[in-house]
Design goal:
single chain; 118 residues; mainly alpha; 0% strand
């Protein structure tokens, strides 16, 4: 009743994959936590490009899927990859908005166009 054995994944392969995943998650957490704020926007833009490649890979997996489990995994991978790319660009856009100069609001009751000749 081992589902992984049915698809040809051994316990050693699973353990190795979980180890690599855990190491990557820990290392990513440590590295991202030490990025200064001035480098965050360029880093985010580069990460968006990488996630675009991940999305292309998910689409390739979706094209190669031939069973229900593969189809479900492919749909989830494409959905999560798309959400990651879109979310990254939204965050980058919001961060870039912080660097734009804001015009001070005019005082209430004053009209800029009131003094212009007609």
């Amino acid at each position: 009743m081992n589902l992984l054995a049915d698809v040809g994944v051994s316990n050693a392969t699973l353990a190795e994959g979980l180890f690599v995943f855990s190491l990557a998650a820990f290392l990513g957490f440590v590295l991202i936590g030490r990025v200064p704020a001035t480098l965050h926007t360029p880093l985010m833009s580069g990460t968006n490009a990488i996630h675009g490649i991940v999305l292309v890979g998910a689409l390739a997996v979706a094209a190669a899927a031939h069973d229900v489990a593969g189809d479900v995994i492919a749909v989830v991978a494409v959905f999560l990859g798309t959400m990651n790319v879109v979310g990254g660009f939204v965050v980058t856009d919001r961060m870039l908005e912080m660097f734009k100069k804001r015009t001070p609001p005019s005082a209430p009751g004053t009209d800029k166009d009131a003094n212009k000749p007609r």
